[in-house]
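Researcher: Go.
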Amino acid sequence: MKIATLEQGGPDGRLVTVSDDLKTYRLGTDTTLQIALDRDRLSATGMELPFEPMNCAAPLPRSYQFLDGSAYVNHVELVRKARGAEMPQSFWTDPLMYQGLSVFAGSQTPIRGEESWGIDFEAEIAVITGAVPQGCAPKEAASHIRYVMLLNDISLRNLIPPELSKGFGFVNSKPISSCSPVAVTPDGLPGWNGRRLKGQLNVDLNGAPFGRADAGIDMTFDFGDLISHAAKTRDLPAGTVIGSGTISNKLEGGPGKPVEQGGVGYSCIAEQRMVETITLGSPKTPFLQDGDFVKIWMEDADGQDIFGKISQKVEAR
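Model: Structure:
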């Protein structure tokens, strides 16, 4: 089943079910996704109407909590290598995770900020959970996944180092993230193996291919691992969003190549800049500028759009 939330009826919107081809919708019997998650049920009612992604908020506009992992440790390894720092071995066995802003923007919400902040996108997979009990193992944790969606986790790269140097985590450097217009139940999702999603995550920047990484490859920690890690010391309420972190593929022979050179490219600008630092001695690609346009989407084997597109324009000051 595919669902979306229309921008109507208040800050939590109006829950609808969406046809597999993303052309029509019907109202959900529950008014919001949070209510449906709390009741652990969802069905549709009423006549079919034309579906327009531009009318959608995020599938879950207000979550009880957003926990973003760094499941593709190759990405973290590149960060450390570009800085000339050795990566702790524990990063391969103990997931990295931070708690972010639990309010989400729609798929076409402009990206706002100052160019001097180093505005960057991060193309990710995210899941929405039901209620998760404290201390559950990864296999059980994965059984509580109710929906899967795409996420653009905006990062303000130039604000991160001074903020982390305080030793108290992200705040200003992690503004509101945007979600795909549609979320999908695991049982209706091609490429889903119960704990991770296999398939090419497409990223275009200003109309040109930027990233074509496979979300199912090189995922060190799957969603069962991430949810279990988050629930180690607490119950997770229904409506918890868990992000995968930047999708990153590790290629034989060293750092990846841009799409135009036959590679899978990158799911964020920072990773391309890391590779440029490693191979060229310094970064060449700028972060997002005013007027830049980012598009993130995923297709099935038949070329059908699965989640709808995240399509965002930068409005920098």
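Model: The chain has a mean pLDDT of 95.
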